[in-house]
Write a structure and sequence with these properties.
Blueprint lengths: L2 H17 L7 H7 L1 H4 L6 E7 L7 H11 L4 E4 L1 H6 L1 H9 L3 E4 L12 H19 L5 E2 L8 H9 L3 E2 L4 E2 L9 H9 L7 E5 L10 H17 L3 E3 L11
Parallel strand pairs: 1-2, 1-7, 1-8, 2-3, 4-5, 6-7
Helix pairs in contact: 4-10, 7-8, 9-10
């Protein structure tokens, strides 16, 4: 084998290894083979999580709704959004919500190399610690797509990756409050982790309003099922597998 072909083969192997963790973005496969990564936790509890904030146009409305129901949630923050609205980030933490890392930019980790990946996570984590005074435990990659570099960076920073068991597909243009509720509760059981969005910064414009409209009936339904709801810190007692 020529040196050129050998180099090309090596590059292909490295690229494949980098992308292997991305298979966990396939929900049914992830939930069956990697329940911890999916956020499967306490059987009598549902973890409520929000991505992409904090957003001054929308996050305060979610804060108010959660306050009315006396429910805490986990907010996976984007560093660039927190940098632009530090007061709102502090308000989330002071209200007792759990703060977690979603990265600095909302970009797919498969498109980033090791150095850029680590810088993205480290920069977001540093901003969270500085602004909110809390040290995050959890990391959720944009689009739910992990890479080998993202896993290594999270490990170096002491972060535990966690995705979700149920989502509302609330980021789409076709979403409505009714569709978000129906989608997220279709197979929701105790032990599940719900993914919603408190910002439309990476979603269809104004899509957060559908999420907000679905939130009260979602919380009512969880309660009617005899389940408690709250942040990941009350949901996952051990480090996910």
């Amino acid at each position: 084998m020529s040196a050129k072909r050998l180099a090309a083969t090596a590059a292909g192997v490295l690229a494949a290894a980098h992308a292997v963790p991305a298979v966990t973005s396939i929900g049914p496969l992830r939930r069956r083979l990697f329940p911890g990564l999916s956020g499967v936790g306490e059987p009598g509890h549902v973890a409520l999580t929000f991505d992409d904030g904090p957003d001054p146009r929308s996050t305060p409305a979610f804060l108010a709704a959660l306050r009315e129901y006396e429910v805490k949630a986990t907010f996976f923050l984007l560093g660039r959004m927190l940098e632009a609205a530090p007061g709102l980030g502090r308000e989330l933490a002071e209200a007792g919500h759990e703060i977690a890392v979603h990265g600095w930019e909302h970009r797919c980790m498969l498109l980033r190399g090791p150095a850029a990946t680590y810088d993205d996570l480290a920069r977001a984590m540093e901003c969270i610690v500085t602004v909110t005074g809390t040290v995050p435990r959890w990391y959720r990659p944009p689009y739910g797509v992990l890479s080998a570099s993202a896993l290594r960076a999270a490990r170096r920073l002491g972060l535990t990756p966690v995705l979700w068991t149920n989502w509302g597909r609330d980021w789409t243009r076709s979403a409505t409050p009714a569709s978000v509720l129906a989608t997220v509760t279709r197979d929701l059981d105790g032990g599940g982790t719900v993914l919603l969005h408190d910002s439309d910064c990476t979603s269809a414009p104004e899509s957060w309003r559908n999420t907000l409209g679905a939130l009260p009936p979602l919380l009512d339904e969880i309660s009617e099922r005899g389940l408690s709801v709250g942040p990941l810190r009350d949901h996952v007692r051990a480090t996910p597998a």
